[in-house]
Amino acid sequence: MTDQQTDQGKNTYLADKIQQLKEKWKAFQEKSPIIARIVAYCSLLGAIGFAGIISLFLLVLVGAFGRLPSKKDLKAIKNHTASEVYSADSVLLGKYFVENRTNIDFEDISPDLVHALIATEDARFFKHSGIDLRAWVRVFLRTVLLQDESGGGGSTISQQLAKNLYKRKRYRLFSIPINKIREMYIARRLEKVYSKDELISLYLNTVPFGSNIYGVEVAARQFFQTSAKDIPTEEAAVLIGMLKANTYYNPHRNPERSKGRRNVVLKQMVKYEYLDKASSDSLQQLPLDVKYTRESNNEGLATYFREHLRQELADKVASYTKADGRPYNLYTDGLKIYTTIDSRLQKHAEASVKEHLAKLQKEFDRHWKNKKPWGKESILMREVRKSKRYISLEEQGRKPEEIMAVFEKPIKMTVFSWKGEQT
Questions:
Q1: What is the bridge-based pairing of β-strands 100-101 and 92-96?
Q2: Measured at the alpha carbon of residue 331, what is the angle toward residues 330 and 337, in degrees to the nearest 5?
Q3: What beta strand segments (E) does 186-282 contain?
């Protein structure tokens, strides 16, 4: 038998099968017309829906909702990094930043952080190429139907990284599907540009922990006074647990919730064989040992000096250019600034000033008790009328007596004292 005869036989066979299906469908329509009509409508809707999804994917790919980053763009990714000010004895005095972040390499990240991340957020991270279809099925069955918190989400680490790097936009009713599709495309491209270890380090340098804390290095330092490299297992589990909701599971503000989430992460590490059960059970019994310290321009050593230095450096730094011709930025380029201040002497000096000013405050309070340091009442009222609050109320059409009634109403606030802030 020739190839032509074989092809003709196949065509005849297919034509017969199609004819049989048509006859069966016609018979079904005659027997159950209502059900047949419903099936036809559902099939049509399914076909339209499928075509719509495919069209949406194509529209996103061609840039109808904004240009997708190219591989070249992804290779050039650079997170904003805080510039650091050091004393002569190598103590970190403070930082200048838009986003408080210290970028670190994969080698400077504890294996416990990596294992906790994979076990909790993307167990098949090393088996997929940016998109995990099996995870979507798991989300539907476990997280949605069974309400299992440990079921995890459907987005891979690469997709979450894409969301962190390229903030979501609004597209009216289609915001969620369009943004999800964009993140899928970007995740696939990220997987082609970076190795798995590089993706992990880029992700852990990018994630926000609330209160202008970005990346695990700054988070480890501010919550536990350690580094991302030396952080113990139970504290690594706390930080990874925060990724689900960094305010809700904040160990400083919500310790009980954070502890519960930490234990979920530790159980996930056992499940995926990154931690043995005995160790996990032991770690779950430990209390949270949070050593929270806030980093800001108003806290730490030499605050006045750092502000003076900032004003001098901002313009001076911008006069130097990088290899690509762009000027340096004090707040985003991760500069290291070394000063002649000795942190030990600075501590003694600030302690002495604090002690002396506390004594002066007592003397001031004793001398001016039941008196008015500002002098005439008219002087105080003049300043009150200059305040933004007074002007705002006046613009609303309030009368002077009504405005003063608002001012006289007690408001809960935190005020400075030499014994610490008081409410």
A1: unpaired
A2: 50
A3: 213-214
Q: What's the pLDDT at 7? A: 56
Nearest to 296 by CA among 94, 98, 82, 83: 94
Q: 178 vs 57, 75, 114, 172, CA distance in Å?
A: 8, 24, 30, 10
Over range 10-28, report the average pLDDT: 68
Vertex 97 angle, CA 93 and 103, to 5°:
85
Query: Is the pLDDT assigned to residue 144 strictly greater than 50?
Result: no
DSSP 172: G
- Retrieve residue 304's tokens: 């006045």
Query: What are 221-262's pLDDT values in tens digits?
Result: 999 999 999 999 999 999 999 999 999 999 999 999 999 999
* Contact status, residue 189 vs residue 82, Cβ threshold 8 Å: no
Could you please report the per-residue DSSP string of 98-159? SSEE----GGGS-HHHHHHHHHHH-TTTTTSSS--HHHHHHIIIIIIIS--GGG--SS-HHH
State how far the Cα of 160 lies from the Cα of 130, in Å rounded to an integer.
10
pTM here is 0.72
- Radius of gyration of the chain from its Cα atoms, rounded to whole angstroms: 32
